[in-house]
Every structure is written in structure tokens, then in C-alpha cells.
Design goal:
There is one protein chain. Strands 2, 4, 5, 6, 9, 10 and 11 form a seven-stranded mixed β-sheet that branches. Strands 1-3-8-7 form a four-stranded antiparallel β-sheet, with no helix packed on it. It is 0% helix and 48% strand. It is globular, with a radius of gyration of 14 Å. With 127 residues, the chain is an all-beta fold. β5 and β6 form a beta hairpin.
């Protein structure tokens, strides 16, 4: 059974940093692309960052240059380093995994194509 567990969320001041971790189990992690998503109150969930099986990354415009996604193929973890946080970054953050069907050749998967999701970790940024 696939399981994704996020950790590292919390409350910080604007300008500070947080590092999120997503621990994966129950599926072949190294064959899956991974993503971080977030959902703020009253808003739709949005993709934040994506990492493919080779470590190639993609970011939303709103976090480009401030957030860094990475993966550890030994620990089956992904990470999201978030710097220069803003109040607009306040949201529940989710990690997700997408399998080989849509994880290939530079394709950026749609949210609906992800196979597994974590329960989320809350990030609150106060101005």
C-alpha cells in the first residue's frame, strides 16, 4: 500500500525559511515523478514544484527562485526547501507521486494524473 507522509510544516514570519519532507513507501519510488502542491483556504489546489526520476525540476512562477525541490533515491524522500517565505505562501502543502504512464520524457503531469497523495502539512506565514 502506497503511503506518503509530509512533515516540517509550521508557523514562521515573512522572510523566514522552512524545509518540508515527504517520506514515501509502498511503491517503486525511483520510477515515479514527484510533486509538491498547496491549497490555501478558499482556493484551488495548485502545483508548486515537480521533480522527475532523474532530478530534473520545474516550479510555478510564484515560487521560482525561492523554493527548491529535491529527491533522495536512497531514503525514498522528497524535500521542499522554502526560502523568503511570504504570507501568500500560507497553505496546506501536499506531496504526490505520479507513475511511469505520465512520468516520462519531460512531460509535466496534470494534477489528476498523480497516483498517490499525502495528507498534507500546514505552512503559515505571518507578515
Amino acid at each position: 500500500q502506497a503511503l506518503l507522509v509530509e512533515s516540517g510544516g509550521g508557523s514562521v514570519q515573512s522572510g523566514e525559511s522552512l524545509a518540508l519532507t515527504c517520506t514515501s513507501s509502498g511503491f517503486h519510488f525511483n520510477a515515479y515523478c514527484m510533486g509538491w502542491f498547496r491549497q490555501a483556504p478558499g482556493k484551488e489546489r495548485e502545483g508548486v514544484a515537480f521533480v522527475d526520476i532523474n532530478g530534473g525540476t520545474s516550479y510555478s512562477v510564484s515560487v521560482q527562485g525561492r523554493f527548491t525541490i529535491s529527491r533522495d533515491k536512497v531514503k525514498n524522500n522528497i524535500y521542499l526547501q522554502m526560502n523568503s517565505l511570504r504570507s501568500q505562501d500560507t497553505a496546506m502543502y501536499y506531496c504526490a507521486a505520479v507513475g511511469p504512464t505520465y512520468c516520462s520524457g519531460g512531460y509535466l503531469p496534470r494534477e489528476s494524473e498523480y497516483n498517490y497523495w499525502g495528507q498534507g502539512t500546514q505552512v503559515t506565514v505571518s507578515s
